[in-house]
Write a structure and sequence with these properties.
16-stranded antiparallel barrel; Porin; OprB_sf; 7 helices; 488 residues; Carb-sel_porin_OprB; porin activity; OprB_Porin
């Protein structure tokens, strides 16, 4: 790996304005299109200078891997391998100054049944994660909106294993198997540019679904249906195992450490999403053969989970959980639910064929505050692609995230202050997260990203673990980060 990084460093010095498709997403990519194979290494028999040029311009670092990818492709099989590495450092405030490295290697195998000589419209996918390094946010910042979407417990785990079949001449499809629903539901195209966790998988499902829901680094068994209702409207819906951890263990990732629990207990998770595409290619919204305006995507969705969820304030006798006479057993609520809306809109482009675009996104979510730690969350931001001449694949972005603590949890903190005779005990209310980032596409297979984050009232204004008097909140925190993604 050291040799690889040295070679890539030399590539950065020479790459200049190499154009490539930007890699987006706060979590590792899961889905493959088996019809699209990485390009072969066309420079194998060329002169040394041409070999170097071929290395810089190929879509993946290893190219055709000595003919392996081409050979697999003849049988409908695709092979993907990528490494995401990050270093984050808390330079001010929070719980502890200093930094940590963490990363994830993603291996994916895809199968196109038609190219394999079987039947039309079938696609299979298996993905494995090797997560390494140390988590950062819990020890250094204490935030609800954690600093990185790749932070997770170090292990090697099965992530996804599913089969998808097109139906009705491609107007619908069904996917069955182990799925990470953050790859399709609640997704914001432009929010995926940012490193912060909640710009990928939002705060409400992260904290309110059992074990954080079937989303990276976990996944769950389920069935997903998708159908195109018109040129502009698409309906997405599914039912999934409600508890991806597979146990009542409070550490969900440890409980399902290798992703092979395949749990079908703990209720079920039902989710649906209506998607509207504005000025999308092939949607019929044309003027003289061209789109009438700038493209956008708008989504409205909801989820419901069938299980029991503990009240955040009251016990099963009606007393506050902070009361010395409490049974300690939270009152139970039947089911849990949330509604959400997502908007992605390109707002400016100097010319129709220009790579430079200004894009905006917003994502709003609500859930009941009696049984949930978070009752409202919001993301909003802007991204600018091709911010400089000759840097068509670079992206600059500025975004803000906001979470509101549920009313019963706020009242529990107030009860705790009363029970302890400590009127200065902090009451958790809300947290605001701001991130500025820049993605630099060094080569088509290598991306480097710099990041600055500021968290206002980490933990929603939680008491600092460094304060023995239990009167001081966690100080506001500044975090600096760097991320690199290499596609092999």
């Amino acid at each position: 790996m050291a040799v690889l990084m040295l070679a890539a460093g030399a590539a950065m010095a020479s790459a200049g304005s190499v154009q490539a498709e930007t890699v987006l997403g706060a979590t590792p990519p899961a889905e493959l299109n088996p019809a699209e194979l990485p390009e072969a290494d066309l420079a194998v028999q060329a002169k040394p200078a041409d070999q170097w040029t071929g290395l810089l311009n190929r879509s993946s670092l290893l190219g055709d891997m000595g003919g392996l990818r081409s050979s697999l492709g003849q049988h409908g099989i695709t092979l993907g391998l990528s490494e995401t590495s990050e270093y984050l450092s808390n330079v001010s405030g929070g719980l502890k100054h200093g930094g940590e490295y963490h990363g994830v290697t993603t291996l994916t195998l895809g199968l196109d049944t038609q190219r394999a000589g079987l039947w039309e419209g079938g696609t299979a996918n298996v993905s494995v994660l090797d997560i390494h390094g140390d988590s950062f946010s819990a020890d250094h910042v204490g935030s609800l909106q954690t600093a990185s979407g790749t932070e997770a417990e170090a292990t090697t785990r099965l992530w996804e294993a599913w089969f998808q079949q097109k139906l009705f001449d491609g107007k619908a499809d069904v996917k069955i198997g182990q799925q990470s629903i953050d790859q399709e539901f609640m997704v914001s195209q432009y929010a995926g540019t940012f490193m912060g966790t909640m710009f990928g998988w939002p705060a409400i499902p992260s904290y309110d679904m059992t074990a954080g829901g079937p989303a990276y680094p976990l996944s769950g068994l389920g069935v997903r249906l998708r159908g195109r209702l018109s040129d502009q409207l698409t309906m997405l819906g599914g039912v999934f195992a409600g508890d991806p951890a597979g146990t009542s263990n409070s550490d969900a990732q440890q409980a399902n450490k290798h992703g092979t629990a395949f749990n079908l207990h703990g209720g079920s998770l039902w989710i649906s999403e209506l998607q509207y595409g504005l000025n999308q290619p092939g949607d019929g919204q044309l003027d003289d053969g061209k789109p009438k305006g700038l493209p956008g995507t708008y989504k409205l969705g909801a989820w419901y989970q069938t299980a029991r969820f503990g009240d955040q304030r009251y016990d099963d006798t009606g007393l506050s959980l902070a009361d010395a006479n409490s049974s300690g057993n939270a009152a139970q609520h039947r089911g849990n639910y949330s509604i959400y809306a997502v908007a992605d809109q390109m707002v400016w482009r100097p010319a129709e064929d220009s790579s430079r675009t200004l894009n905006a996104f917003t994502r709003l979510m609500w859930a009941p505050g009696d049984r949930n730690q978070i009752s409202f969350s919001a993301n909003a931001g802007v991204t600018l692609t091709a911010p400089f001449d000759g840097r068509d694949s670079d992206v600059a972005g500025l975004a803000v995230g906001y979470v509101k603590v549920g009313n019963h949890l706020r009242e529990y903190d107030q009860d705790t202050a009363t029970a302890n005779g400590n009127p200065l005990y902090p009451v958790r209310r809300d947290e605001t997260f701001v991130e500025a980032t820049y993605q630099y596409q060094i080569t088509p297979w290598w991306q480097l990203q710099g990041d600055v984050q500021y968290t206002l009232k980490p933990g929603g204004g939680a008491v600092s673990s460094n304060d023995s008097t239990q009167t001081q909140r966690i100080p506001n925190a500044w975090v600096l980060g760097v991320k690199t993604v290499i596609t092999f």
